[in-house]
């Protein structure tokens, strides 16, 4: 019975962010099919941030009208909407509508908003529900939450989404290209036009390269149906969890008293979490949120600033320019960077469970390191369509590794900062969530005009680049 409960909890955690994570890893294929093209990631970033209205409303209702919201019906609604939205995505993802000056993916954006609303709201509904279960199931829930990024990335890797190749097209220089005089040869990883003087025909022939999309192993229809299946499994798992016999102890008591806790979230012996209450230790235990004293204000401000800064980079700034930083190196580099960086997030979370490090100086150094990788990614986006080492395999390796290390380093820091705040008080976690959403919003608001209004970044056709090396 315990094994079954662990499996159900893991599947339940899978539904937390699987839809949006799946959408991001499918972008290499979607940017080649939808009219927004390279601007699609920046649009998605803004739409996803707008969906934060969901957790905001839930939080405000919990604060001003305690008890007015029932967790179980809300979770059923959230999972039901997510399953339906993923199913609709499978059939409507490429439907466009004429808006103002051209065709736009209105259905895609609307469905993205609902998926983001589901995933954002899960942050303030799933964890409170987990307080009903014993503490050791919380670890399993976080494992499932990590799989919500890993499984879609693996599916996208198998799909081979968004891969293209360069086709060598030969045209006689003195005639109009025709079916009889034009030939196509697969010519991968080349970027220069050539002149071929010895081809048979009435005159010399010019050769140029054109991009051709390679067919994915299965279509976005199948991919989004797989996402809807994952959401449906999460819904079924939650339904079965409701039918499991209640544990003898409530999980709130268990979370406070159980010795079976994650090593990474267990307070250190003798760790100073704030001065004791002047009314005695009994009062301090009754009000754990009073543990943080004024002398910790500077460290708290530092932590909240780091949380906002990191989320601005990982959720707003860099995702908006990933296409610009990677596609100049070719579709394979973009595909691998999008997939592996999505896998780096849950892997960093797993690492933080076994190798926790709470030292703020260490986390600060790791933040600087991750920001350095992010700066390299941004620099390559600014230099598009001719970034450093374009056309060389070393450039492709560097950009993929830089994206993976950027996401991995900052994901580890985010987890450990959350662990530190969790040990301080519940209100500290509340403000941590506010800093997360604020940073994400600021990053998205900053990048949207730079990408879509001022158009500071230039797209590239990998096959027709003429960059000096």
TrEMBL record:
Protein's membrane topology: Multi-pass membrane protein
Keyword set, alphabetical order: Cell membrane, Glycoprotein, Membrane, Transmembrane, Transmembrane helix, Transport
Reaction catalysed by this enzyme: riboflavin(in) = riboflavin(out)
Subcellular location(s) of the protein: Cell membrane
Domain of life the protein comes from: Eukaryota
Functional description taken from the UniProt entry: Plasma membrane transporter mediating the uptake by cells of the water soluble vitamin B2/riboflavin that plays a key role in biochemical oxidation-reduction reactions of the carbohydrate, lipid, and amino acid metabolism.
Name of the protein in its database record: Riboflavin transporter
Record organism: Crocuta crocuta (Spotted hyena)
């Amino acid at each position: 019975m315990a094994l079954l409960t662990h499996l159900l909890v893991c599947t339940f955690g899978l539904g937390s962010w699987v839809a949006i994570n799946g959408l991001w890893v499918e972008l290499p294929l979607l940017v080649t099919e939808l009219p927004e093209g390279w601007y699609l990631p920046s649009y998605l970033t803004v739409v996803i941030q707008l969906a934060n209205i969901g957790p905001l409303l839930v939080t405000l209702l919990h604060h001003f009208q305690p008890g007015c919201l029932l967790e179980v019906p809300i979770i059923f609604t959230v999972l039901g909407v997510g399953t339906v939205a993923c199913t609709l995505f499978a059939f409507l993802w490429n439907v466009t509508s004429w808006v103002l000056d051209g065709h736009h993916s209105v259905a895609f954006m609307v469905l993205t908003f609902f998926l983001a609303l589901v995933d954002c709201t899960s942050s303030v509904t799933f964890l409170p529900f987990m307080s009903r279960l014993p503490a050791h199931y919380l670890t399993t829930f976080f494992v499932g939450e990590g799989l919500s990024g890993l499984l879609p990335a693996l599916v996208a890797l198998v799909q081979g989404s968004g891969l293209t190749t360069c086709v060598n097209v030969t045209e006689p220089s003195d005639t109009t290209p025709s079916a009889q005089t034009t030939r196509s040869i697969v010519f991968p990883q080349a970027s220069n036009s050539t002149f071929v003087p010895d081809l048979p025909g009435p005159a010399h022939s010019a050769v140029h390269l054109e991009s051709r999309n390679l067919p994915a192993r299965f279509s976005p229809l199948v991919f989004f149906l797989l996402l809807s299946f994952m959401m449906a499994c999460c819904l079924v798992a939650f339904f079965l969890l409701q039918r499991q016999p209640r544990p003898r102890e409530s999980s709130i008591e268990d979370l406070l008293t159980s010795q079976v806790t994650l090593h990474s979230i267990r307070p250190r012996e003798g760790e100073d979490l704030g001065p004791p209450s002047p009314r005695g230790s009994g009062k301090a235990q009754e009000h754990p949120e009073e543990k943080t004293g004024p002398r910790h204000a500077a460290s708290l401000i530092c932590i909240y600033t780091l949380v906002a800064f990191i989320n601005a980079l990982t959720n707003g700034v860099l995702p908006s320019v990933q296409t610009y930083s990677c596609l100049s190196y070719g579709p394979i580099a973009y595909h691998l960077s999008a997939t592996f960086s999505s896998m780096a997030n849950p892997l960093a979370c797993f690492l933080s469970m076994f190798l926790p490090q709470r030292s703020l100086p260490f986390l600060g150094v790791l933040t600087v390191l991750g920001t350095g990788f992010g700066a390299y990614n941004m620099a390559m986006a600014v230099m598009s369509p001719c970034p450093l080492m374009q056309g060389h395999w070393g450039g492709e390796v560097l950009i993929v590794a830089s994206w993976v290390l950027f996401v991995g380093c900052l994901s580890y820091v985010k987890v450990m900062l959350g662990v530190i705040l969790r040990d301080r008080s519940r209100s500290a976690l509340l403000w941590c969530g506010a800093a997360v959403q604020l940073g994400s919003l600021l990053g998205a608001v900053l990048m949207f005009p730079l990408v879509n209004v001022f158009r500071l970044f230039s797209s590239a056709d990998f096959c027709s680049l003429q960059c000096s090396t």
